[in-house]
Design a protein that fits this description.
By secondary structure, the protein is an alpha/beta fold. 41% of the residues lie in helices and 18% in strands. The radius of gyration is 18 Å and the shape is globular.
Length: 263
């Protein structure tokens, strides 16, 4: 990861500490992401949270499940400092641990975890080749039969959303300098070639429709800085009951690692 990307996340941790804003200001999108990942965790699992940031989402998972062990890794030292401080304040003890780490070279033995998940981590890698390297590492440290969840930002839904915005003369949404959204087509070709079974959780389409399109048609966005527009919560609540449509920039690819081979 290039220095400016690392420094951006270091500065986010120094500025925001344990708050969700350190990783993303969109608290409703984070909640949808947490809900989606939570479906694949169960009591007694050993879990690796790759790109844990300040631990905000990891703590939400520990509220829902009695995990045997949750390990969080992040390449920003300030994020790990914030996560450890928050864990100590909450009093989680040995339930959770946080380490500096790089998704391209995870410091764990093969077949160590029941569930491995990324949260908007691969999009911080500048090339597809490095993203594949990160995916390979997640698969390597997962046990045979384990679940690997890639909760990431994707290019095609962004283009679809921008096409809709263009129809009503709204400017396009763009990637941040520190993001390189994955191509769904490319990822699916890779998974098929690797003979990996997967399913796609399109958990944010309705929410994106409301919070990235309709909000600008029916409210004055200038009146609501950041993600404070009240329409966001309305569509978050709708999203929890209805989804789909391919507009969700944030989606999760849920991969089952084969039992017969270790990757």
């Amino acid at each position: 990861m290039t220095d400016f990307i690392r420094e951006y996340w270091e500065s986010q941790a120094r500025k925001h500490g344990a708050a969700h804003v350190a990783s993303w200001g969109d608290n409703f999108a984070i909640a949808l992401e947490v809900d989606t990942i939570a479906q694949y965790l169960k009591d007694g699992d050993t879990v690796l949270d790759v790109g844990c940031a300040n631990g905000f989402s990891a703590f939400r998972q520990l509220e829902r499940h009695k995990l045997a062990r949750l390990v969080g890794v992040d390449f920003a030292a300030s994020m790990i400092d914030a996560a450890r401080a928050a864990a100590a304040e909450i009093g989680l003890g040995e339930q959770v641990e946080f380490h500096e780490g790089d998704v391209r070279a995870l410091a764990f033995p093969d077949a160590s975890f029941d569930v491995v998940y990324t949260t908007r981590v691969l999009i911080n890698l500048p090339t597809w080749e490095q993203q594949v390297q990160g995916i390979g590492e997640c698969l390597r440290v997962a046990k045979p039969g384990a679940t690997v969840i890639l909760s990431e930002g994707f290019w095609e839904p962004l283009m679809l959303l921008n096409a809709m915005r263009a129809l009503v003369r709204l400017p396009p949404l763009v990637e941040h300098d520190f993001n390189r959204y994955l191509k769904k087509e490319r990822l699916e070709e890779f998974l098929a070639a690797s003979k990996l079974a997967y399913r796609v959780e399109d958990f944010s389409s309705v929410y994106y429709l409301g919070s990235r399109l309709l909000r600008e048609l029916v409210t004055d966005p200038a009146a609501y800085p950041g993600y404070s527009n009240p329409i966001n919560e309305i569509f978050y609540n709708i999203e929890r009951d209805y989804s789909g449509g391919g507009l969700g920039v944030q989606q999760a690819y849920v991969i089952t690692k084969p039992r017969e081979t270790a990757r």
